[in-house]
Amino acid sequence: DACFQQNFSSRSHFISGASVAVKCKVGKSVPSFNKEVKTNENGEFKVQLPFKVWKQVKRIKGCTFKLISSNEPHCSVASVDTSSSVNLKAIKQGEHIFSAGLFSFKPIKKPNFCNQKPSVPNSKAHVKNEFLPNIDPSTLDKKSTEDTFFPFPPIPFLPPIPFLPPIQFPPIPFLPPIPFLPPNPFLPPNPLLPAPTPFLPPQVTNPLQPLSPPPLFPPV
């Protein structure tokens, strides 16, 4: 807890090799279990209790945890050094895992950077530093720079589309007139139209029929 916030913040980090004392007892009796353990690289410590959870619930509630020493001389003052709050964290393969809460060390004197307001980084510079690799400009020549930042060649000039002549369609051929249809004998004639002329067959003279005698005229 570098900035005395009594909480884990961006200025905090895990301390490995710190010593923690674990004591368990029931009431005011002599501690039935006392062991000192050290934290790992993640700031966590583990201790195996010698009694069963479902049989010795009071002993587990009577366990206390106390910071003894820090592995970092510049951050060796116990800020939160004692905890008696034990909470069940998980059960893995029949094993009950409890958590003793958060412990922290702090420096003897508060560092100066804790009083500085966090500056808002420039968005362009932040994006550049976040996504672009650090490249020494002196190691790049003009050709490599162009290939790095302009990888696509320019679009070549395209010639204009040539003029297309109009499409000539052949003329429509002459259609013959519609032939005359005879009247339908089953339909009544239209009163607004004149009656058609009846078709008369041509008269043919019978050659076997004798000619009639010429008329007789009285003498003058």
UniProtKB/TrEMBL annotation:
Pfam families per UniProt: Pollen_Ole_e_1
Protein name listed in UniProt: Uncharacterized protein
Organism listed in the record: Glycine soja (Wild soybean)
